[in-house]
Protein backbone atom coordinates (compact mmCIF):
# COMPACT_ATOMS: atom_id res chain seq x y z
CA UNK A 1 0.00 0.00 0.00
CA UNK A 2 2.83 2.40 0.95
CA UNK A 3 4.68 1.54 -2.29
CA UNK A 4 1.58 2.33 -4.36
CA UNK A 5 1.18 5.63 -2.52
CA UNK A 6 4.79 6.61 -3.30
CA UNK A 7 4.33 5.74 -6.99
CA UNK A 8 1.10 7.75 -7.11
CA UNK A 9 2.88 10.75 -5.49
CA UNK A 10 5.62 10.63 -8.12
CA UNK A 11 3.00 10.51 -10.90
CA UNK A 12 1.27 13.59 -9.46
CA UNK A 13 4.64 15.39 -9.11
CA UNK A 14 5.69 14.52 -12.67
CA UNK A 15 2.35 15.71 -14.03
CA UNK A 16 2.69 18.97 -12.13
CA UNK A 17 6.25 19.43 -13.41
CA UNK A 18 5.18 18.83 -17.02
CA UNK A 19 2.41 21.38 -16.62
CA UNK A 20 4.94 23.91 -15.34
CA UNK A 21 7.24 23.24 -18.30
CA UNK A 22 4.38 23.69 -20.77
CA UNK A 23 3.28 26.90 -19.09
CA UNK A 24 6.81 28.33 -19.01
CA UNK A 25 7.41 27.49 -22.67
CA UNK A 26 4.25 29.41 -23.53
CA UNK A 27 5.95 32.52 -22.13
CA UNK A 28 8.84 32.22 -24.59
CA UNK A 29 8.49 34.78 -27.38
CA UNK A 30 8.86 33.94 -31.05
CA UNK A 31 11.40 35.53 -33.36
CA UNK A 32 11.23 34.92 -37.09
CA UNK A 33 14.68 34.48 -38.63
CA UNK A 34 16.16 33.94 -42.08
CA UNK A 35 19.75 33.23 -43.14
CA UNK A 36 19.78 36.36 -45.33
CA UNK A 37 18.76 38.71 -42.51
CA UNK A 38 20.70 39.81 -39.43
CA UNK A 39 18.35 40.19 -36.48
CA UNK A 40 19.29 42.85 -33.92
CA UNK A 41 17.80 42.51 -30.44
CA UNK A 42 18.08 45.70 -28.37
CA UNK A 43 17.53 45.70 -24.59
CA UNK A 44 17.62 48.59 -22.14
CA UNK A 45 20.60 47.37 -20.10
CA UNK A 46 24.05 45.92 -20.76
CA UNK A 47 23.88 42.23 -21.63
CA UNK A 48 25.56 40.05 -19.01
CA UNK A 49 24.92 36.57 -20.39
CA UNK A 50 23.67 34.94 -23.59
CA UNK A 51 22.89 31.34 -24.51
CA UNK A 52 22.14 30.02 -28.01
CA UNK A 53 20.79 26.52 -27.54
CA UNK A 54 21.84 25.03 -30.92
CA UNK A 55 24.47 25.48 -33.62
CA UNK A 56 21.76 26.48 -36.10
CA UNK A 57 22.10 30.13 -35.09
CA UNK A 58 25.22 32.25 -34.63
CA UNK A 59 25.41 35.57 -32.82
CA UNK A 60 27.52 38.26 -31.19
CA UNK A 61 27.19 41.43 -29.09
CA UNK A 62 28.46 44.34 -31.25
CA UNK A 63 27.27 46.89 -28.66
CA UNK A 64 26.82 46.07 -24.99
CA UNK A 65 23.02 46.27 -25.07
CA UNK A 66 22.45 44.79 -28.55
CA UNK A 67 22.67 41.15 -29.62
CA UNK A 68 22.94 40.27 -33.32
CA UNK A 69 21.90 36.81 -34.55
CA UNK A 70 21.57 35.02 -37.88
CA UNK A 71 20.73 31.37 -38.71
CA UNK A 72 23.20 29.33 -40.72
CA UNK A 73 22.11 27.75 -43.97
CA UNK A 74 20.40 24.41 -43.42
CA UNK A 75 17.56 22.14 -44.44
CA UNK A 76 14.92 24.03 -42.47
CA UNK A 77 11.21 24.08 -43.13
CA UNK A 78 8.84 26.99 -42.73
CA UNK A 79 7.88 27.35 -39.06
CA UNK A 80 10.70 25.15 -37.67
CA UNK A 81 11.98 26.18 -34.23
CA UNK A 82 15.71 26.04 -34.93
CA UNK A 83 17.06 27.43 -31.64
CA UNK A 84 16.23 29.14 -28.37
CA UNK A 85 17.97 32.38 -27.36
CA UNK A 86 18.35 33.37 -23.69
CA UNK A 87 19.44 36.93 -22.86
CA UNK A 88 20.24 38.02 -19.30
CA UNK A 89 20.90 41.67 -18.45
CA UNK A 90 21.79 43.27 -15.12
CA UNK A 91 18.24 42.92 -13.79
CA UNK A 92 16.15 41.06 -16.36
CA UNK A 93 16.04 38.03 -18.61
CA UNK A 94 14.11 37.02 -21.70
CA UNK A 95 13.91 34.00 -24.03
CA UNK A 96 13.08 33.67 -27.71
CA UNK A 97 12.28 30.73 -29.93
CA UNK A 98 13.95 31.31 -33.29
CA UNK A 99 11.29 30.34 -35.84
CA UNK A 100 12.59 29.83 -39.38
CA UNK A 101 10.89 31.53 -42.30
CA UNK A 102 11.79 31.09 -45.96
CA UNK A 103 10.52 34.58 -46.76
CA UNK A 104 13.24 37.05 -45.81
CA UNK A 105 10.66 39.85 -45.75
CA UNK A 106 8.95 38.17 -42.80
CA UNK A 107 12.17 37.88 -40.77
CA UNK A 108 12.73 40.30 -37.87
CA UNK A 109 15.61 42.69 -38.47
CA UNK A 110 15.20 45.01 -35.46
CA UNK A 111 13.62 44.02 -32.15
CA UNK A 112 13.36 46.53 -29.29
CA UNK A 113 12.67 44.87 -25.94
CA UNK A 114 10.84 46.89 -23.30
CA UNK A 115 11.54 46.33 -19.63
CA UNK A 116 7.95 45.29 -18.96
CA UNK A 117 8.35 42.47 -21.49
CA UNK A 118 11.23 40.93 -19.55
CA UNK A 119 11.22 38.79 -16.41
CA UNK A 120 12.83 40.28 -13.31
CA UNK A 121 16.15 38.68 -12.38
CA UNK A 122 18.42 39.13 -9.36
CA UNK A 123 22.01 39.13 -10.64
CA UNK A 124 24.31 38.56 -7.65
CA UNK A 125 27.32 39.72 -9.70
CA UNK A 126 25.90 43.22 -10.26
CA UNK A 127 26.37 45.64 -7.36
CA UNK A 128 24.34 48.38 -9.06
CA UNK A 129 22.74 48.46 -12.53
CA UNK A 130 24.47 50.75 -15.00
CA UNK A 131 21.34 52.82 -15.51
CA UNK A 132 21.30 53.57 -11.77
CA UNK A 133 25.03 54.43 -11.77
CA UNK A 134 24.49 56.87 -14.62
CA UNK A 135 21.55 58.50 -12.85
CA UNK A 136 23.63 59.08 -9.73
CA UNK A 137 26.62 60.29 -11.77
CA UNK A 138 24.47 62.86 -13.58
CA UNK A 139 23.09 64.06 -10.26
CA UNK A 140 26.71 64.76 -9.23
CA UNK A 141 27.30 66.55 -12.54
CA UNK A 142 24.43 68.90 -11.76
CA UNK A 143 25.56 69.55 -8.19
CA UNK A 144 28.12 72.01 -6.83
CA UNK A 145 31.75 71.24 -6.08
CA UNK A 146 32.69 69.78 -2.70
CA UNK A 147 36.48 70.03 -3.24
CA UNK A 148 38.30 73.25 -4.10
CA UNK A 149 41.97 72.73 -3.24
CA UNK A 150 42.82 69.39 -4.93
CA UNK A 151 44.29 70.36 -8.29
CA UNK A 152 47.45 70.68 -10.34
CA UNK A 153 48.51 72.90 -13.24
CA UNK A 154 51.07 72.10 -15.93
CA UNK A 155 51.45 73.29 -19.54
CA UNK A 156 48.60 75.73 -18.80
CA UNK A 157 46.35 72.74 -18.12
CA UNK A 158 44.63 72.69 -14.75
CA UNK A 159 43.20 69.36 -13.58
CA UNK A 160 40.86 69.51 -10.60
CA UNK A 161 38.99 67.12 -8.33
CA UNK A 162 35.41 68.38 -8.04
CA UNK A 163 33.69 65.66 -6.02
CA UNK A 164 34.01 62.20 -4.56
CA UNK A 165 30.82 60.39 -3.62
CA UNK A 166 30.34 56.91 -2.26
CA UNK A 167 27.34 54.60 -2.37
CA UNK A 168 26.88 50.82 -2.09
CA UNK A 169 30.58 50.04 -2.24
CA UNK A 170 31.19 52.35 -5.21
CA UNK A 171 33.24 55.54 -5.60
CA UNK A 172 32.07 58.31 -7.96
CA UNK A 173 35.10 60.49 -8.81
CA UNK A 174 34.34 63.81 -10.54
CA UNK A 175 37.33 65.35 -12.39
CA UNK A 176 37.62 68.34 -14.73
CA UNK A 177 40.38 69.89 -16.86
CA UNK A 178 40.68 73.53 -17.83
CA UNK A 179 42.79 74.34 -20.91
CA UNK A 180 44.18 77.88 -20.74
CA UNK A 181 45.65 77.70 -24.24
CA UNK A 182 43.95 77.84 -27.63
CA UNK A 183 45.49 74.51 -28.65
CA UNK A 184 42.94 71.71 -28.93
CA UNK A 185 43.64 68.80 -26.60
CA UNK A 186 43.22 65.26 -27.96
CA UNK A 187 43.05 62.77 -25.11
CA UNK A 188 45.19 59.69 -25.72
CA UNK A 189 44.44 57.87 -22.47
CA UNK A 190 43.38 58.46 -18.89
CA UNK A 191 44.95 56.15 -16.34
CA UNK A 192 44.17 55.69 -12.66
CA UNK A 193 46.82 54.37 -10.28
CA UNK A 194 47.54 53.84 -6.62
CA UNK A 195 51.25 54.48 -6.12
CA UNK A 196 53.87 55.48 -3.56
CA UNK A 197 53.89 59.12 -2.51
CA UNK A 198 57.67 59.23 -2.56
CA UNK A 199 59.94 57.49 -5.00
CA UNK A 200 63.21 56.59 -3.32
CA UNK A 201 64.54 53.99 -5.76
CA UNK A 202 63.09 52.97 -9.08
CA UNK A 203 63.25 49.31 -8.10
CA UNK A 204 61.22 49.95 -4.94
CA UNK A 205 58.57 52.16 -6.53
CA UNK A 206 55.22 50.41 -6.55
CA UNK A 207 52.02 51.25 -8.39
CA UNK A 208 48.72 49.51 -9.03
CA UNK A 209 46.55 50.50 -11.96
CA UNK A 210 42.80 50.38 -11.44
CA UNK A 211 40.06 50.58 -14.05
CA UNK A 212 36.76 52.45 -13.74
CA UNK A 213 33.66 50.37 -14.36
CA UNK A 214 31.85 53.34 -15.91
CA UNK A 215 32.40 56.88 -17.17
CA UNK A 216 29.67 59.18 -18.45
CA UNK A 217 31.66 61.27 -20.95
CA UNK A 218 33.08 59.43 -23.95
CA UNK A 219 34.50 62.56 -25.61
CA UNK A 220 38.22 62.48 -26.46
CA UNK A 221 38.81 66.03 -27.73
CA UNK A 222 38.22 69.39 -26.09
CA UNK A 223 39.33 72.99 -26.53
CA UNK A 224 38.75 74.72 -23.22
CA UNK A 225 37.04 72.42 -20.74
CA UNK A 226 36.70 68.70 -20.10
CA UNK A 227 34.79 66.97 -17.35
CA UNK A 228 34.01 63.37 -16.54
CA UNK A 229 32.70 61.27 -13.69
CA UNK A 230 34.27 57.87 -13.19
CA UNK A 231 32.76 55.04 -11.16
CA UNK A 232 35.05 52.59 -9.34
CA UNK A 233 34.57 49.60 -7.12
CA UNK A 234 35.47 50.67 -3.60
CA UNK A 235 39.22 50.78 -3.00
CA UNK A 236 41.43 51.65 -0.06
CA UNK A 237 45.14 52.33 0.28
CA UNK A 238 47.58 53.24 3.09
CA UNK A 239 48.47 56.84 3.89
CA UNK A 240 51.94 56.52 2.33
CA UNK A 241 50.35 56.01 -1.07
CA UNK A 242 48.34 58.31 -3.32
CA UNK A 243 45.57 57.91 -5.90
CA UNK A 244 46.57 59.49 -9.24
CA UNK A 245 44.64 60.51 -12.35
CA UNK A 246 46.99 60.73 -15.34
CA UNK A 247 45.75 62.38 -18.56
CA UNK A 248 48.00 62.22 -21.63
CA UNK A 249 47.71 63.73 -25.09
CA UNK A 250 47.91 61.92 -28.44
CA UNK A 251 50.74 64.06 -29.84
CA UNK A 252 54.31 62.72 -29.90
CA UNK A 253 55.39 65.45 -27.49
CA UNK A 254 51.94 65.47 -25.90
CA UNK A 255 51.08 67.29 -22.73
CA UNK A 256 50.55 65.03 -19.71
CA UNK A 257 49.02 66.22 -16.48
CA UNK A 258 48.68 64.20 -13.26
CA UNK A 259 46.29 64.82 -10.38
CA UNK A 260 47.32 63.38 -7.01
CA UNK A 261 44.55 62.59 -4.53
CA UNK A 262 45.54 61.81 -0.94
CA UNK A 263 43.75 59.16 1.07
CA UNK A 264 42.44 61.88 3.40
CA UNK A 265 40.51 63.31 0.44
CA UNK A 266 39.06 59.88 -0.36
CA UNK A 267 37.96 59.51 3.26
CA UNK A 268 36.03 62.77 2.89
CA UNK A 269 33.85 61.25 0.17
CA UNK A 270 30.29 62.55 0.42
CA UNK A 271 27.12 60.42 0.51
CA UNK A 272 24.01 60.82 -1.61
CA UNK A 273 21.09 62.31 0.26
CA UNK A 274 17.60 60.86 0.06
CA UNK A 275 16.40 63.54 -2.37
CA UNK A 276 19.02 62.48 -4.93
CA UNK A 277 18.54 58.75 -4.35
CA UNK A 278 14.77 58.58 -4.58
CA UNK A 279 13.70 61.44 -6.84
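^ C-alpha coordinates above, recovered residues below v
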Amino acid sequence: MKKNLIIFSWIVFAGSLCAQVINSSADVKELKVNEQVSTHIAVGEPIEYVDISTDNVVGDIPIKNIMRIKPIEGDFQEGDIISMITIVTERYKIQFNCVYTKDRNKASSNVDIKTEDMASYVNVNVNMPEIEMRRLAWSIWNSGNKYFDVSRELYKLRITLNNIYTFRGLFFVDVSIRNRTNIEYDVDQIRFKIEDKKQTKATNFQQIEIEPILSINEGETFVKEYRNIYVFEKFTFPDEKVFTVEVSEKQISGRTVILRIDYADVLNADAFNRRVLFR
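Confidence is low (pLDDT under 50) at residues 1-26.
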